[in-house]
Structures are given as C-alpha cells and as structure tokens.
Design brief:
Number of strands: 0
Keywords: Membrane, Transmembrane, Transmembrane helix
Shape: elongated
Pfam families: DUF212
Helix content: 55-70%
InterPro entries: DUF212
Order of helices and strands: HHHHHHH
Protein name: Phosphatidic acid phosphatase type 2/haloperoxidase domain-containing protein
Distance between the termini: 48 Å
Strand content: under 5%
Structural class: mainly alpha
Length: about 180
C-alpha cells in the first residue's frame, strides 16, 4: 500500500512551508517579503511619476497623461527590469540562475525599447505627416493619427536602468 504524506507530516519534518515557499510564514505580514517584485514595481511607479517632471522640463507644460503613457524619460520598462535583475542579484548572488534569466530579460527589453519601439515611433511620425498632406476628400485624411511616442532614446533607456539600480539597492538597504 502506498503511503501519502499530509501537510502535517511535512510540517513535522522541520521545514514546514519553508521548503515549499522559500521563507517561513509570517503572521504579522499580510504580504510575503519579496524584494525583487517590490523593487520592480517601485521602480516602474517612480519612472512613470518622473515622466511628468521631465516632460515639464522639456516642454514647459504639465501633462499628467505622461504617467500612464509609454516612451519618454526615464524608461519605465528599463527601470522595472533593471530593478528586478539587481534585486535578484543582491538577494541570490550573481551566480544564481534566476539572476541570469533576469539579466537576459533586461537586455532584451532595453534593446527593444531603444531599437524596435523607437523606430516604430519614428515611422508613425512620418506616416502621420504623409496623411496630413492628403487632400480632404481622400479616404485616409480622416484617419486618427498613430501614436508616435512608443520607444526610448538610448539616454532614456540608460536613465531608466540607473533608476532601477538605485531603487533595488535602496530597497535592499532598507529591508
């Protein structure tokens, strides 16, 4: 007859849920402490918030829509993936497989932000200019313009990366 191990039996082996979930259950904390995810979300939120101010500095007008839009300074995508990778590196070490995965993910996201998405935005800008030159009777003259601010310049990507590193390091030092 096969034996079945119950949760009580597993808990009595000394590990409890620690072996399953990586950390002991905490009765005083509603959410488990997860430095990488908190660092990533905080870096994303800060980058989106900072876009309002960098947009004001550049264009001398307030635009709260920048908090929920893509593109601009700093790159929230870069800040998010960099904070995630750095936090994993700080917690698990640079030799951990999770760190390697996070670094590769960060490189792909940052390359995409400054490459593919940036050029797609530039193409949208050109297409919008072409459509504006159509005569009013042309069927495409009333088409809604394409979004032009999709990607990031390399400086915006780098600024997002630096923000992500700083957030992860500060989160680690305060925990």
């Amino acid at each position: 007859m096969d034996e079945v191990m119950t949760a009580t039996d597993a808990g009595s082996l000394g590990g409890g849920n620690r072996a399953l979930y990586g950390s002991p259950p905490s009765s005083h904390n509603l959410f488990p402490h997860n430095l990488p995810i908190f660092s990533a979300f905080l870096a994303f939120a800060l980058a989106q918030f900072l876009k309002v101010f960098t947009n004001w500095y550049k264009e001398k007008r307030w635009d709260s829509k920048r908090m929920i839009s893509s593109g601009g300074m700093p790159s929230s995508h870069s800040a998010t993936v960099t904070a995630l990778a750095v936090a994993i590196g700080l917690e698990e070490g640079a030799g951990a497989p999770a760190f390697a995965i996070a670094v590769v993910l960060a490189c792909v996201v940052m390359y995409d932000a400054s490459g593919v998405r940036l050029h797609a935005g530039r193409q949208a800008e050109l297409l919008n200019q072409i459509v504006c030159e159509f005569p009013p009777e042309h069927p495409l003259s009333t088409v809604r313009p394409l979004r032009e601010l999709l990607g990031h310049t390399p400086i915006q990507v780098a600024a997002g990366g630096v923000l992500g590193c700083v957030v992860a390091y500060l989160m680690r030092s305060t925990s």
